[in-house]
Amino acid sequence: MGQVTFKNLSKSFGPANIIDGINLEIRNSEFLVLLGPSGCGKSTTLRLLAGLETVSSGKILIDGKDVTELEPRERDIAMVFQNYALYPTMTVAQNIGFGLKAKKTPPKLIKEKVNDIAELLGLTHLLNRKPNSLSGGQQQRVAIGRAIVRKPKVFLFDEPLSNLDANLRLEMRAEIMKLHRELGATTIFVTHDQEEAMAMADRIVIMDNGLIEQVGTPTEIYFQPKTRMVAGFIGNPSMNFIEGQISKNCEISMAIGRIKVNIPPNSGKDVEVGIRPEKIKLDERKSKPTEIKVKVLVTNVELLGPRAVVKMQHESGQQLTSVVDHNEMDKYRVGTKISVSLASQALHIFPRIRD
Amino acid sequence: MIISFENQLSRFLGTIAIFTAIIVVLFPFFWIFLESLKPPSLGGRPDVWFFEPTWENWSEIVLNSGVPLNILNSFFIALITVVISLICGAPAAYAFSRFRGFHGARYSILAAEMMPPAILILPLFLLLYKLELIDSRIGVIIAHLTFVVPVITWFLIGFFDEVPKDLEDQAMIDGYTRFQAFYKVILPIVRPGLGAAAVFGFVLSWNDLFYSLLLTGAESRTLPVAIASFWTFRGIELGKMAVAILIAVIPVLILSYSIQKHLIRGIGGSGVKY
Ligand SMILES: Nc1ncnc2c1ncn2[C@@H]1O[C@H](COP(=O)(O)OP(=O)(O)OP(=O)(O)O)[C@@H](O)[C@H]1O
Ligand SMILES: [Mg+2]
Hints:
By secondary structure, chain A is an alpha+beta fold. Helix content of chain A is about 25%, strand content about 35%. In chain B, a hairpin with a 2-residue loop joins strand 1 (about 230) and strand 2.
């Protein structure tokens, strides 16, 4: 079991509202990823759930039980910190067994459990070493071992992979997912790496400025972004945005042309139209009513492995970015004019916020 | 490798400077040692350089004077002072290091440290007089606590500052209270700091003359007071004084050497980071 509920959770440090009334239901055995730009309150959310920060207002429930006022040790959770927070004066075995000792587990049982975990994580030969003699990946494993040995209701991970090099990061990512499948424990994983979030999550929570922007599966987040922030934050290279106005007959007029679309309700008169780079297609055919055909100047082409990023400029000054397969690259020459098409079903319409 | 003239010159000047400093620092010790070996008949004659060395002063001090008792007093007073200071100072330093809104408050400790002891001596004297603790070791310990506790607290703040906060958070998640996290996880990490602070506090108490001079009598006299008392109406008993000084100074030198690695960080308190 391990179901977590945030009810109107808020946290302020002095006058600053860091978490601004969030509501969230985390399901049992779910792998939930908190994703957002730096400083949006991801770590604070985890620390509130862990009991390391006091809640300013609102409630936290674990399995229906109100834990808002409980001490960290009474919540039955485990956390893996970004820099692992291994106890430097203790051996690996003592580090892993430290939480069991708190529960007055008999030493023999502690030894057994520590050995089991060490075997599971491939740490057996390191049990008598001190943490500072281990590599980053090994320290990471010890931190994970220390978390899972207690079989807590909820696992919290605060950017645990960000100190590892790229290969090791992929390896640990797979390992954490495997552990999650085997143990089936509710996991909340903080990252600001969207690729990591997409790869690991059952559901992703996108946060910004202490608010939840969207909760959904990776597919939902990518293909149906609910807000302009989510649309712009997810995807690499990021979505193109074009300012436009809605006219009476359900048409959007933009500097690059006009098109009929299904306009979402209450989007106002001024809108921003988003389109993912990979949806901008090279097009020499006659234009259809469901798409806009645009003449653009190719300004830059950059090869990124199997794909290439093409930067283009419309005569109105509007910049567009598209992603193409590398074998199509020679159709895009810097300095030449080409025709591209933007299909109406690929457009995302967001109300324009003036600031 | 090309060594330029400038480099060679500066290296030469640097070497000279270092040797000068070493001689300036060590010469007094050497001189005091010579004094301690002079026969008493030559006592008070620092201008005499050649003489027959004798251990007379040493045996006189060790066998026929109050100095051994004074050493015992000084040792006992410094030890108890340090133990109490650590018990009070370590949690205080931890609190100063950890809690928000307290960052400026740590400098108030410095203020306590810098206060001239003359401010405290009168109230302390009256207090100890009423409690009938004049000429008692406890009285001196109380007086020494007034400056050793702040020094040790200040000394330890820097060590606690360097322990990541995540560690006690982790311990609290692992099932411990904050206090348990403090003594099971944090204290073992700062053990080198505790040792260095203890040595530093010990030396401060061991060296103190001001309070000891005013608060002790025959029973509780400490070593620095005994040293001062060789300056009598009949003149200075330089030979015996030299012996006592050496006895007082040697443990200080050894202890200071043992903590030199941690001394800078500790004295810097929270300021120095490297
Ligand atoms: N103890 C604190 N006192 C004051 N402000 C704080 C405190 N802890 C966090 N904050 C502020 O709260 C905001 C959110 O911090 P938080 O650590 O939750 O961000 P984050 O989303 O985890 O960012 P990152 O990706 O950089 O880790 C930041 O602006 C930070 O300055
Ligand atoms: Mg963070």
